[in-house]
Design goal:
single chain; 256 residues; alpha+beta; Rossmann fold; Tumour Suppressor Smad4; 15-stranded mixed sheet; 5 helices; 40% strand
Length: 256
């Protein structure tokens, strides 16, 4: 099968592991193809995995990720040194545990952005005003630093630091969390995370004029002349090989 290896070459630990990994791969059975791989082997941490997702975002339907972690607990990388001997079986598709991860899609002026963890939208230079609609129903206005929208797997990251809820990955939901919203006699909002089911569409109308920053996982872009952001579940999904005792809740216990 065709495969590629994604890692941060400047990190010595990852580079050394990749060189070791190459000695285990049966090159008569498996062909290296960086452009159109069937499998992407990620070596590193969650950041490396997120970068790999965005590198191959237009080819996700044809790819399975095999993730080897280096360092501390990771929420997306499950394989370790002792699993190197399995690499040829994994590249043959032999794995009993396959996780399917949801992807969120944001549509802005006919351009699409994707996130596996979260989107954030806002400015740290000045407060911004947003109107929130759920399935075209006006819910509230909020005024503050910005908004965060996350998947269940992303709920344990930035969202948790903002006081958002932890979502069960089996729940097929996503979550809106306000970022430092102002609560005063003039400005009021729910000031609480909102959990939506996967069929919902979240519309965010921006009613100020200054530029904002959109982050999507570990990517970012500046937005000018923003009007409406539409966020919903994407049709894209991500397939990841895993192993027993590497559930979301196992990782929560190790991380916190």
């Amino acid at each position: 099968m065709k495969y590629s290896i994604f890692y941060k070459a400047w990190r010595k630990e990852a580079s050394d592991f990749v060189e070791k990994l190459k000695t285990y791969i049966d090159h008569s059975r498996h062909q290296y193809d960086e452009e159109n791989p069937h499998y992407v082997i990620v070596v590193g941490g969650d950041g490396s995995f997120l970068s790999a997702i965005h590198h191959y975002v237009d080819k996700l339907s044809n790819i399975v990720f095999i993730n080897f972690k280096r360092g501390f607990t990771s929420f997306y990388l499950d394989f370790e040194d002792e699993d190197l001997s399995r690499i040829n079986d994994l590249l043959d598709g032999k794995c009993d545990t396959v996780i399917t991860l949801p992807v969120l899609r944001a549509k802005i002026n006919n351009k699409k952005y994707y996130a596996i963890n979260e989107f954030t939208l806002g400015s740290f230079m000045k407060a911004s005003n947003f109107e929130i609609y759920v399935n075209d129903y006006f819910l509230e206005s909020t005024y503050g630093s910005g908004l965060l929208v996350c998947t269940p797997f992303g709920s344990s990251g930035y969202n948790k630091s903002l006081g958002g809820a932890l979502l069960d990955p089996e729940s097929d939901t996503f979550q809106l969390t306000e970022m430092a919203s102002i609560q005063s006699k003039k400005y009021k909002s729910l000031d609480s995370s909102l959990v939506l089911n996967k069929s919902s569409t979240l519309l965010i109308k921006y009613t100020d004029t200054h530029s904002l920053t959109l982050t999507y996982d570990n990517q970012a872009t500046e937005l000018q002349d923003l009007d409406v952001v539409e966020i919903r579940y994407s049709k894209k999904t991500i397939k990841v090989f895993s192993k027993p005792n590497c559930t979301f809740f196992d990782k929560l216990k190790k991380a916190f």
